[in-house]
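re: ur question from earlier - yeah i can do the single chain one, its not a big deal. heres the input i used so u can compare w yours
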Amino acid sequence: MSILQDVGLDRYDRDARLKPALFAVLPIVMVALAWAPRLWTEKTGIVALLTAFGVTFLLSRAARVSGRNVEKRLFDNGASLPSVTLLRWQDSAIDPHTKQRYHTFLSRCGHALPSTEEEKADPAGADSRYRSASRWLLEQTRDREKFSLLREENIDYGFRRNLLGLKPAALMIALIALTINGAVFWAQTTWHTEDWVTFLILGFAILCAVSAWIALVKPQFVRDAATSYAIRLLAHCDHL
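and the output i got, formated as tokens:
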């Protein structure tokens, strides 16, 4: 971790961007370690590690871009971000009494939020005001130490968002890893018991990873984290 900090990766970079990339390349790394252990001598291991780190670092940058694209698609380019929808009077996720406190606080801070009637009359205009207020609130909560719980929610959201962004690449990498695993196994001149064990365990592990990507990493997986983050963000209206 200290090495990653030395090259400029803070905790958000490591947890929200680098970890999704590591999960994506893990099948290839598993296959290389299992079928080519001799390559992992002291010298070649360092080269391989640096290469893997470089690829993973590039993937982490790609995760950032693809994650933002996912966010735009999921939330209509910012129009339906949870921090906006939760402030709407018509949304029932936050009880009306708590929502009234948030509106009152934000209005006192210079963000005149719409009434129920104004929201119904001009939904787009109301959302624009909600968006402005939530952006202002986000800027007021940048202090990592003071708002550590909010930061945790932000990291969790970024992690899930970037996982979804990398999902196509991760599934392709897993398919390549399965192909390599099968090709190396069938290329053996004599099949020993340990070869069968390696082939089956690797295949099963990669298929489990594929199943996890397909079953868990879905839009709702990201929306849940985004909503939790937005609820935590708005809750600071009671503490600022």
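DSSP finds ten helices and no strands in the chain. not sure if urs matches, ping me
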